[in-house]
Amino acid sequence: FANPIRKEVPDKNDTDVIYFGPGIHEFENGKFDVPSNKTVYVDGGAILRGQLSLDSVENVKIIGSGMVEHTVKMGVHIANSRDIEVDGIFVTQCATGGSDGVKITNVKSISYYGWGDGLNVFASNNVTFDRVFCRNSDDCTTVYATRKGFDGGCKNILMENSTLWADVAHP
């Protein structure tokens, strides 16, 4: 995938930056809990072997052009959070539940396993997908009011400038 050249790379010495440089990064228990008010930078040469979990946080950015390894289901999981940005990374799945103000830009989602949805939305508001690419074994994207433990409705969900390619289910 061709990515736009990132003009601003965060300083890895900044205390508000979590920096994953080139190489393989394994997380204890297969998950990394991202705290509020942080920027996570995933370098183009970085492979994360575990989920990036954003649970009950705010003001978080996940940026870069690296990847969450293809075996990690739900590579990025956003739950009960607000003001979240995910830009440029490669994942199997990126789900948003019970959240508000989520922007997913230039993300590539590819899955091959059963029920391998790409970019799901559960009971969330103000979620934007722009310039995403999905090649998923199941649904590329879904919008559910109540499901997977998230209750309520969905408002202002926008998908634009994107390519959706489903194998056995629905774009």
Sequence of strands across the biggest β-sheet: 1-3-5-8-11-14-17
Rg (CA only): 15 Å
Given the C-alpha coordinates, what overall shape results?
globular
Distance N to C terminus:
20 Å
The portion of residues assigned to helices is under 10%
- The quaternary organization reads as single chain
> What count of helical segments does DSSP give?
0
Overview of the molecule:
It is a single chain. The chain is mostly beta strands and 171 residues long. Helices cover 0% and strands 53% of the residues. The protein is built from no helices and 18 strands. The strands form 3 sheets. It has a 7-stranded parallel beta sheet, with no helix packed on it. Strands 2, 4, 6, 7, 10, 13 and 16 form a 7-stranded parallel beta sheet that branches. The radius of gyration is 15 Å and the shape is globular. 36% of the residues are buried.
What does the secondary structure layout of this molecule look like, with pairings?
Layout: E1 17-20, E2 23-33, E3 39-42, E4 46-55, E5 58-64, E6 67-68, E7 76-79, E8 82-87, E9 90-91, E10 94-97, E11 100-105, E12 108-110, E13 119-122, E14 125-130, E15 133-136, E16 141-144, E17 155-160, E18 163-166
Parallel strand pairs: 1-3, 2-4, 3-5, 4-6, 4-7, 5-8, 7-10, 8-11, 9-12, 10-13, 11-14, 12-15, 13-16, 14-17, 15-18
What's a quick, concise take on this entry?
This protein has 171 residues and is mainly β. It has strands at residues 17-20, 23-33, 39-42, 46-55, 58-64, 67-68, 76-79, 82-87, 90-91, 94-97, 100-105, 108-110, 119-122, 125-130, 133-136, 141-144, 155-160, 163-166.
